[in-house]
Design brief:
Number of strands: 6
Number of helices: 10
Largest sheet: 2 strands, antiparallel
Order of helices and strands: HHEEHEEHHHEEHHHH
Shape: globular
Strand order of the largest sheet: 1-2
Radius of gyration: 19 Å
Helix content: 40-55%
Distance between the termini: 68 Å
Number of domains: 1
Strand content: 15-25%
């Protein structure tokens, strides 16, 4: 009994409880490899039905139409026009969101979570989705490094895994470079202070 009590102390306890919860609820999870929602016949709907091509052509998030859609690698995308649908089907890899549509800043920490179609950025011709304005500003604060980290964790841990289990694993077993929201905000404030002109 003492051995069992010892095992469930500290960080191991967090990991164990998170893993148990993940396995218990994993069957109910619809996370899978994508940050998707369900709407009518579309059980794996990307970007909450927003048009992925519109980010590139219109420069804004634009709702798609339920009757103009295409499927790519098991996920459904909706479009605001037939022209956008044709552009997507001709070259889907050009338009799909990176990291399965999850918040890019979360992927930096190995956590597939969040991602709203109204908070985004095009970087080097690719679409990145974020969980909110704060997540986006923290990501671009060190964009090059964060892209490298996110690519690494997506490639080595997240892509192809059970997103639900991965999420809770990395919430318990944090990556070495983990920073809390408070730490990231403090860094952001420092960068902003450095940009302001001095008063003399």
């Amino acid at each position: 009994m003492e051995t069992i009590n010892w095992l469930f102390r500290g960080r191991f306890a967090k990991l164990a409880y998170a893993s148990l919860a993940a396995f218990a609820l994993g069957a109910c999870s619809t996370v899978g490899p994508y940050n998707s929602t369900a709407d009518g016949a579309d059980s794996v709907l990307m970007l909450k039905g927003h048009d992925p091509v519109a980010y590139f052509t219109l420069g804004k998030h634009t709702p798609g139409k339920a009757d103009i859609k295409a499927t790519h690698e098991g996920a459904t995308y909706r479009f605001s026009s037939e022209e956008h649908k044709a552009m997507f089907t001709a070259s889907p890899a050009k338009y799909v969101p990176q990291y399965g549509g999850f918040c890019a800043n979360g992927i930096v920490y190995g956590i597939p979570w969040g991602g709203d179609p109204d908070t985004w950025k095009l970087i080097d011709g690719k679409l990145y989705i974020f969980g909110g304005a704060s997540s986006r500003k923290y990501f671009v604060m060190d964009e090059k490094r964060n892209l490298q980290l996110a690519d690494q964790y997506w490639r080595d841990e997240i892509n192809g895994s059970n997103g639900f289990i991965q999420r809770y694993y990395r919430l318990a077993a944090r990556v070495p470079h983990y920073k809390s929201g408070e730490q990231l905000e403090a860094e952001w404030q420092q960068t902003q202070a450095g940009k302001q002109p001095s008063r003399s």
